[in-house]
Amino acid sequence: MYQGKLQESPLGRILAVSDGHALVGIWFVGQKHDRGKIKESINMEGDTICDAAIEWLDGYFRGERTEFSFPLNPLGTPFQKSVWKKLLEIPYGEVTTYGQIAQALAKEKGIEKMSARAVGNAVSRNPISILVPCHRVVGKGNSLTGYAGGLERKKWLLKFERKNKSKASHC
What we know:
Oligomer: single chain
Shape: globular
Structural class: alpha/beta
Distance between the termini: 30 Å
Number of strands: 6
Radius of gyration: 15 Å
Number of helices: 5
Largest sheet: 4 strands, mixed
């Protein structure tokens, strides 16, 4: 059974969901791919992991938190998980491109090339918004491209992080 908790944020309501052992999702309510691969009902009483995620989000939106210590278990394919792991390496307040992620993954796998489009599809399915920072991925030439939570939220998050980069701690 999944546990969930809703929280208000400057960008709308956010749903944090855990499997009782790790955080499996954070979605803006109503966003594209809302609840990802979770088909069963969610107990909305929350748990300690949901509480920790909500507390972290509160600190994040105050510009005070960039790192977290609770476990993550995003539900996805092995390829998607490899892309989402790369997202965790993007520093707070900075961006990378789909192509750069594809190049890094290709190098790790010892292959010549990987599709930036395949990376983009995996990024778009990221079930843990903000903590796994898919909003920090941009298109070629730093163009703002898709974000499951909406481009306005992506713009807001990038601007917010740039503004708070020196203030945020790594706790």
